[in-house]
């Protein structure tokens, strides 16, 4: 039997060309990824460097009571160029976050800490994507002495006006200052005369306020002489228990041929003497008006102002009642937000009669934290809350302390903050 030998099959050739192509493609992809990573990282780092190099190290000085918006805070610490769109900026002033569109009022004397936090997206290839820049704003006290009762006066032709004991002045620490009246008026000629009262400390003028004396025909006078001013053509005779000190004030007329010298009597009382007052006719008591920041002894319109503000208070309170809020916190937050809304519609003022009253907040549009606090208290009292005025009549920030839902809390009518526990800037609260 003849056996046929098996035919050897040829070996399969390795397709080296396919492996080569795959390696080539993988190399191209790798190179592209590495190149993209390097180029993108370089581009992103350029963006980041352009942003962070705008932030310097200078910390500005801020005047007490200054309110800066989010944008203004940034402008104080960075350059003029716009930051990149990918940069997420967070501002913190004294650990309080200031959001875009928000603002911060500097009411803490001394150093105030500003932190600028910049974060970039997670998809950024840069090694460092979070940055913090810290600044200390130095806030200085610039409150000036206060002169009360400054207003224009009307007198009849030929009548005299004695303002010797009328104006009251107080230093920033509450101590009483000496006042002097400067200027001349001719009571024999109709017209308006510019005058001013100055507050003196150690013999030097430290603040002044202007007012006018308007000479009219008696039948044209529309204002009454305020309490505390000697009426025209009337001289008060001191009682026997008063020590009389006489000073002389020269009143020059507009006529060059006439000069009149009048003698003013300043009395220092050794004991309390009776004072003649007019009947107070107002639905709100004097003490309540004073609690609300009004000065009924000097401001003849105090009662009318209170009535106008009270109408707004009732509208706000009734609106809150109609919402059906279930918790005290919700009611107080609604009230504080409303008062804050009125405040930001107006202007910040710290002088005159109205800035510290609900009228200044709701009607006149001129207010400070003092006025916002009293406005909020009036709304909350109408809603049935018992309130305490924190830092009343002090040159510092003011707010409301009250109990909500059985817990002690705070409400800030100026900025609209409400919460349980202590006010964020109240370091003395336990």
Please count the helical segments.
7
Give the tally of β-strands: 21
**Main sheet characteristics:** 6 strands, mixed
CATH class descriptor of the largest domain: Alpha Beta
Q: What count of structural domains?
A: 3
Beta-strand percentage? 25-35%
> Judging from the principal axes of the Cα atoms, what is the shape?
elongated
Note the run of SSEs as H and E. HEEHEEEEEEEEEEEEEHHHEHEHEEEE
Helix content: 25-40%
Oligomer: single chain
Rg over CA atoms: 36 Å
Spans where pLDDT lies below 50 across 5 or more residues: 227-279
CATH topology (fold) name of the largest domain: C8orf32 fold
Structural class label: alpha+beta
Mean pLDDT: 77
How far is it from the N-terminal to the C-terminal residue, by CA?
Answer: 116 Å
What's the arrangement of strands in the largest beta sheet?
8-10-11-12-13-9
Give a verbal description of the structure.
The structure is a single chain. This protein is of the alpha+beta class and 430 residues long. The chain folds into three domains: 51-140, Immunoglobulin-like (Sandwich); 146-238, Immunoglobulins (Immunoglobulin-like, Sandwich), CATH 2.60.40.10; 286-420, C8orf32 fold. The protein is 25% helix and 29% strand. The longest helix is centred in the N-terminal third of the chain and has 37 residues, at 16-52. It is elongated, with a radius of gyration of 36 Å.
């Amino acid at each position: 039997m003849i056996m046929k030998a098996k035919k050897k099959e040829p070996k399969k050739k390795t397709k080296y060309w396919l492996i080569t192509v795959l390696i080539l493609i993988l190399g191209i992809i790798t190179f592209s990824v590495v190149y993209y990573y390097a180029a993108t990282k370089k581009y992103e780092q350029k963006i980041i460097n352009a942003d962070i190099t705008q932030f310097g190290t200078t910390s500005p000085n801020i005047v007490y009571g200054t309110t800066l918006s989010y944008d203004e805070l940034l402008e104080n610490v960075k350059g003029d160029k716009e930051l990149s769109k990918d940069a997420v900026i967070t501002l913190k002033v004294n650990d309080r976050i200031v959001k875009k569109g928000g603002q911060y009022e500097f009411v803490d004397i001394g150093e105030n800490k500003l932190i600028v936090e910049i974060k970039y997206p997670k998809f950024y290839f840069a090694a460092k994507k979070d940055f913090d820049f810290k600044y200390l704003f130095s806030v200085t006290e610039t409150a000036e002495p206060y002169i009360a009762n400054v207003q224009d006066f009307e007198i009849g032709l030929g009548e005299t006006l004695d303002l010797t004991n009328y104006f009251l002045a107080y230093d920033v620490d509450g101590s009483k200052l000496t006042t002097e009246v400067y200027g001349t008026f001719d009571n024999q000629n109709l017209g308006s005369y510019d005058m001013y009262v100055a507050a003196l400390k150690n013999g030097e003028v430290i603040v002044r306020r202007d007012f006018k004396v308007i000479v009219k025909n008696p039948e044209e006078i529309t204002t009454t002489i305020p309490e505390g001013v000697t009426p025209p053509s009337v001289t008060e005779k001191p009682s026997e228990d008063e020590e009389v000190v006489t000073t002389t004030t020269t009143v020059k007329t507009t006529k060059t041929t006439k000069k009149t010298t009048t003698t003013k009597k300043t009395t220092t009382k050794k004991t309390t003497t009776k004072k003649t007052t007019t009947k107070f006719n107002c639905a709100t008591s004097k003490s309540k008006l004073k609690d609300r920041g009004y000065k009924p002894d000097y401001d003849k319109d105090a009662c009318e102002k209170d009535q106008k503000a009270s109408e707004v208070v009732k509208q706000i309170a009734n609106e809150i009642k109609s919402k059906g809020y279930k918790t005290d916190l919700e009611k107080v937050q609604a009230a504080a937000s409303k008062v804050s809304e009125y405040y930001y519609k107006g202007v910040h003022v710290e002088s005159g009669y109205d800035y510290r009253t609900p009228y200044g907040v709701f009607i006149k549009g001129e207010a400070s934290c003092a006025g916002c606090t009293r406005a909020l208290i009036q709304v909350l009292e109408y809603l049935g809350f018992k309130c305490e005025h924190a830092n009343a009549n002090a040159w510092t920030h003011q707010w409301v302390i009250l109990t909500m839902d059985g817990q002690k809390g705070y409400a800030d009518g100026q900025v609209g903050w409400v919460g349980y526990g202590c006010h964020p800037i109240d370091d003395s609260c336990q």
